[in-house]
């Protein structure tokens, strides 16, 4: 049964394998009138692109081609299709994988499910994190749509391996972490993360990390009883990301240790508006957004592909053996995972904003477009490092 | 937009408010031939029923009526509808709530979304955990279907407030925890949990807790790339439960602190079968089940309804005020939440088992029915406390 | 796989068998604030109720109970469940059917699909037209929602067996045909239809007929490229009605005999508004509503249940035999089918009106409610026969 | 809301405009192991390709590129994406259309819906029949899947304008009509159709036609109560085709004129198998396939684009005017429409075959693949005209 689509009012359907000709995504349900440029997609893609410091060395330009749904630079209400060709494919790294399933990877489950003979092992095939580039491209459009309500989404790594963020950070700092090569929201943290990542590379090992995503100025009253609670749809979207093993929002797992009188958030007046004292619930109550910032966290496991030899089996002779996973891999998938998680949050919120009439289903007005363009410009220009700083 | 349905191959659609005439569920997608008795539903419902020790005092018999989809005691392939009348409704408790939204509750978000005048405040309306009875009834049928592969699902509380389970427990012990009034899998833990719950009741406060759900002997190779990964669908189902603030599976958040060489699970031979050394991935790799036990955990926040006075606002006069939530509430929703979480896991697995041809979509064979009946009988009789012990 | 739900933004899920305890429907996706009374449902149900002249003699009161989704007489945004108990069930008529599948009926296909042993043969089980009562109840609510745009839907029989309507009729006449026992929009036609129906009853035979449904003042610009064209969704909804074997809109099959220069509708100005000269396209172009009246027709086959003996097989001994179908049946299902077809059109239009932001997804305003109430009152009172005339 | 996807177990999502860079389709839900070659797609596409005699002169090679979902020539269980670049685009024909909506076309409704400024008028944009090439490509794969049950689908024109087929034809003759440039199943009919089409071209006019699609050897027991009846899903799929204004199956509209004793089909034994005497119900009873040939018909209106001048309005000055539609158009869309209708039937049947476990959801066996390959070879080679005959 089909499992490659997500969203009800705004639906993405993705396709493509790591070492096939291309990956891509169809976005259906966009209202007409949204200005979309290739540059918008490239902006977001630049923050998950491989081939940079501290991430996989695969040199993909990730150049998106918009195939449909745009006329005169604006959406038409028809599905918008984005194609990204795979260009830097070196499948030879993967010959060994064909018979030695990699620990921590989807190799064996895919073989179990689809049959050894139908398994596109090259680069992990469909299970490869390469697929997430299409999510980021689609997420760029969702982010732009959300500019209508001046909603912005930002993520950072609150921990990497054993190292944890132990300071308060502003939304601005989180937003600017995308220019940090290790997705740190504080300079002091950045250097510690970098040390760790370097050590992992040297050891042929990898680290996990926890990403936190914050949504500033989210529309309130989004989310539907009972199963399409915003927290439920966020959890699904986040857990659909490869390597994510946990999700929490607001107090999260900490709430389980607390008393009701501590965890409950008092309802107060602030500037004559009803609000909550601590936003303990991370912007979501009863599965519906409160209008306070949405705060969620997700746990990425360490990159499964490591050079360090690990035990596995040889499928040809049914014997135990070892594998040292070569290829070009991230020392910590969590770093690039932050951008992917942001995209998933954007897609869920845009979907729900349309479901709740906050964003129109059919057509944006001229006024809408103006608001979006202005907010998007501000968003794109925020935090921009000065020439030569990166 | 509709948000009250879950599942693609096996779909449940629920309805009903806490203090309306009834709650209920339609289960669509069941193959013909499954023997279903009212007693099957009552068996599962008995473990979340209110009116027992340590849980809400509301005296609901939770008597399910099967309205359709059954002929001669077996499913016909048509939708099976279950109705549970609300009988012990005392709405007077809720008069105060109408103008004083309760901290930690969905009151205010529902008002924001649907309008004050359309808000059925009585007993929390649709946001009430009462709705989860319908999930448990539907889950009973999903559990029974899964008997075809001899799959069983059990849950327990691995922590309640500050108290944590610190021993290894067997699947059998977890399974039998349903007869513990505080959902403890160890006797020593049970008494500690009970003390805590009693103290909460005395203080007019409540506690959170962490439930762990284990699936024994799950079908392997369930789950679909990319968005309908089994971990994603489980996360959504679990987060759709009221009061759940976090989800993890396998190593979960712990993985984020680890190295790849620690978190990766070595692939080995055991009894001539390929398997994993530690099941670190909690039975799910690449979003697909491995055949190893599925292990997941979810964090329940403390019951939001507490007697202890908390700050809120009075909507009539826009002033800050206090509320002491009366009504009959659980000192820890996590206790009854375990049964609900089990039901959600059962529904997701049954849905995916049908999606993967492990359970037939249209009709069970006589052989299938025999296997199901035998395994179900064993399941129902397991752990049964001796006469008078509960 | 589930097949008992229809609609994306407004979804109905139906359940129930002809001779089971009850039939019912859940309507999900209704905005909050819509006033719904039991009487609204009963009004529409009265036009398809059995036990009247010229239709089946089964005496069902069809008394709907609203189980959820209403508070203070208005929708809450939660699913609205409607239950109709079966009261006048005489299953003994059906003992013969168990072994002698009825020509023209679903008996044999249901047996093929779900197995003889799982087949609820009593009254046709799920395949019975009794199920359509739930559609009419749901359709009543859809019709009421559409009062927001002052859209009304009416149907009549343009042919019954060999007799055809050969005059022009006004929308008002079509609307008032619901008070005709044979669904005729002209008095002269009514008497001819009645003669025909009486002759069929005497002969133990039945007749087919063609229903025409007209939507007055439909919202324009409804319908979505490519697969959810309004014509496609209408066709599915209409063909989902038992006994319907054909669908057409506008010129329909006649268009296939024509030249482009005849079938194309010229675009003109009328009262300073752009419009079409003849509405040849029945209010739908490119799958999108034009704002002109929607006109569609559907062919009902003759009632399959006839007293006249027909050849069939005896499943016990695999021999050819005869059956004379007893029970209480309509001489022409097309008569009551008109009301069902109206309901299906209402449900599709309401679904699309929500999908196109013509009706709000979440909540109606006070102004909206006032418009709806006024238009609904007018609709209910239109054509009312004077005391004693029926 | 999204409207560009169809199917539940086998889903297609299409994208692309007539004069944009490309059109394409993602097929999700294919089991692993199906051999798919570019040539399979090209084979089916060749029967709807423009640039041939009696159809539009646009010279599109319609060369499909498979972007994903295939490894070693077989499906992997991942979504299969097909891209067709637009190469012969002459948008200049359409400058006039921008301000003069064409009678019979979607121009005005698209403007109403999405706004004049967002309307891609070039070649009809998304409303163009060009989009149907993607359906034919996807349909090729569905047809191939259905080879597992040796099911084949064929269509022909039973009428073109006023000319009607008045002889019995065999399935073989229908199947071979694809090599007729006017889709006639009889040589005598072919010459009459050709004359008519030539006259239309000369007059600058066009004709409608009725296509009949026959499914030989369909799987029995496909179709789901209540809304996903096979007849309902077929009707939706067929009405989603541009220019189709009517659908019927079996006796269709004729049944409405008949008595029950005539329309009911007697159930008999033939070769020791239970069957129906006349297949009056066109292979579908109760919305479920009976195993007899499925027979359905659909009415295509005449091509809306005609050279003959027609009245329309000029949107710049709000005055009535005339338009003579240039561009390269079919004298009768019904001709190429037959191939599209075949594809839609194939897609619906394959979807339902998977929903009913007749085709596996996850993976084909080696035996399955062998059957498919053999039957496909026979299908492709059937009716092949001898060298130089076309």
From TrEMBL, chains A, B, C, D:
Binding site for NADP(+): 48
EC number: 4.2.3.5
Pathway recorded for this protein: Metabolic intermediate biosynthesis; chorismate biosynthesis; chorismate from D-erythrose 4-phosphate and phosphoenolpyruvate: step 7/7
EC class (word): lyase
Keywords: Amino-acid biosynthesis, Aromatic amino acid biosynthesis, FAD, Flavoprotein, FMN, Lyase, NADP
Cofactor note: Reduced FMN (FMNH(2)).
GO cellular component terms attached to this protein's record: cytosol
Flavoprotein as UniProt keyword: yes
GO MF annotation: an example: FMN binding
Pfam family, one: Chorismate_synt
The reaction(s) this protein catalyses: 5-O-(1-carboxyvinyl)-3-phosphoshikimate = chorismate + phosphate
Role, per record: This reaction introduces a second double bond into the aromatic ring system.
Name by which UniProt lists this protein: Chorismate synthase
UniProt source species: Acidianus manzaensis
């Amino acid at each position: 049964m089909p499992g490659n689509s997500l969203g009800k009012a705004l639906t993405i359907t993705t396709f493509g394998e790591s070492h096939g000709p291309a990956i891509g995504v169809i976005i259906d349900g966009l209202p007409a009138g949204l200005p979309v440029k290739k540059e918008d997609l490239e902006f977001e893609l630049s923050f998950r692109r491989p081939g940079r410091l501290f991430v996989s060395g695969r040199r993909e330009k990730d150049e998106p081609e918009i195939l449909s749904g745009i006329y005169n630079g604006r959406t038409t209400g028809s599905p918008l299709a984005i194609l990204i060709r795979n260009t830097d494919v070196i499948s030879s790294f993967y010959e060994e994988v064909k018979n030695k399933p990699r620990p921590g990877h989807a190799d064996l489950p895919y073989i179990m499910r689809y049959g050894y003979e139908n398994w596109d092992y090259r680069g992990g095939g469909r299970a490869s994190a390469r697929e997430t580039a299409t999510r980021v491209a689609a997420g760029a459009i969702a982010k732009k749509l959300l500019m209508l309500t001046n909603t912005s989404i930002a993520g950072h790594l609150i921990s990497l391996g054993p190292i944890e963020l132990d300071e308060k950070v502003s939304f601005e700092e989180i937003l600017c972490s995308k220019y940090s090569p290790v997705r740190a929201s504080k300079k002091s943290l950045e250097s510690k993360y970098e040390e760790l990542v370097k050590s992992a590379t040297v050891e042929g090992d990898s680290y996990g990390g926890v990403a936190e995503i914050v949504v500033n100025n989210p529309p309130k009253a989004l989310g539907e009883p009972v199963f399409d609670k915003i927290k439920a749809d966020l959890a699904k979207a986040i857990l659909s990301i490869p390597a994510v093993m946990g999700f929490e929002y607001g107090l999260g797992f900490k709430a389980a240790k607390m008393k009701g009188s501590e965890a409950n958030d008092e309802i107060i007046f602030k500037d004559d508006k009803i609000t909550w004292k601590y936003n303990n619930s991370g912007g979501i109550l009863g599965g519906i957004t409160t209008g306070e910032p949405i705060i969620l966290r997700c746990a990425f496991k360490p990159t499964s592909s490591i050079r360090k030899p690990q035990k596995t089996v040889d499928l040809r002779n049914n014997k135990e053996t070892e594998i040292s996973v070569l290829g070009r891999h991230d020392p910590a998938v969590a770093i690039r995972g932050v951008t992917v998680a942001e995209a998933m949050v954007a897609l869920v919120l845009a979907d729900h904003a349309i479901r709740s009439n906050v964003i129109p289903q059919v057509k944006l007005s001229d006024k809408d477009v103006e608001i979006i363009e202005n907010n998007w410009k501000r968003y794109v220009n925020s935090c921009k490092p000065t020439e030569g700083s990166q």
